[in-house]
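FORM 7B: Structural annotation worksheet

SECTION A. Query
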Amino acid sequence: MKVILIVGIALLSFGSLGSDEVATSSSAPYATKVVAKVEIPPQKTMIPVTTLYTPSTKQLLRVSYYFEWIGGVGNGIPALTISWGDDYYPQQVQTSLGQEVNEPFCGNSEGDCYYTFPVRTPAGKPIQYSVTGCSPECAQDFRAFIIVERLI
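SECTION B. Predicted structure
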């Protein structure tokens, strides 16, 4: 009887510790934190290389963006570029509005593009973005939303 009581108390104790840890998101090892975000308002002008976030320590991050035309496809094709450096090489992801439906990252040929990807970057190497492709500006407005979350 004593053995059953001790085992029962042990199971209840371990079970309550596990549920407390799951219920508290700050203790979860996978809890994310938004470390940078930018909203590019509707505009026609290109954006030079701009720093979005520079980590102070080596980090695993998740970058998400949504990039779209406002008012339909126009003259020129703007391209959003996200760039960073890992331990070895410069890296980048680039998406052009108005890509065909089956191109990666774009929802339709009218030009709404979105993507989420991991970034592993050392301390001091910035994550940057730019918009290029129309000279000197696009005929139609575009806008973008970019978020950087720290995973580890």
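SECTION C. Observations
Residues 33 and 149 are 5 Å apart (CA to CA). Residues 1-25 have pLDDT under 50 and may be disordered.

SECTION D. Sign-off
Analyst initials: ____
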